[in-house]
Amino acid sequence: MICSENKVENLFKKIIIQIGENTNRKGLKKTPIRAARAIRFLTQGYQIKLQDILNDAIFSAETNSMILVKNIEFYSLCEHHLLPISGRCHIAYIPKKKIIGLSKIPRIVDMFCRRLQMQENLTKEIACCLESVIKPQGVAVVIEGKHFCMSMRGVKKQFSVMTTSLMLGLFQNNYHIREEFLHLIK
Fold this sequence. Notes:
The protein has helices spanning 5-18, 31-42, 50-54, 104-113, 119-134, 148-151, 170-173, 175-184, and strands at residues 58-60, 67-78, 84-94, 98-100, 116-117, 138-147, 162-169. It is of the alpha+beta class.
């Protein structure tokens, strides 16, 4: 169930009051509504439908060469602390008679990123989505993420980067294909 923007605004107002601030202070008067709109935007992936993204952009193709889209920037929210995760995503696949429109790949990344996430799950969701949509010979996803829950609080390691990967099909079973992919994303 989607909570109304007004309810979310009231919840942010309560949070601001609970931390000891005055919501009538000039700088904070509109903060609850701005925060409600921001959280709505940052979690819009729950309302996005995969079919709307694809929009019939699956095409027949005779190629069986690797297709790679790298350095797709992403932003998400950590499901444990609601703090930002940002980084880069690299995706490759080897077609089996079907290819997907180029712009659809970053749109799929955004759909999953605009949900509360763990990077490990995000990696798998993207790979499995592409596998189910185009049924390629293989899919590879590598994500490099900076987690603000680790750099702003807790252990406070500002320069740490988490890397996750998932290799399916030929990327998992063929060493040379996997190595070519890893070399290309360096």
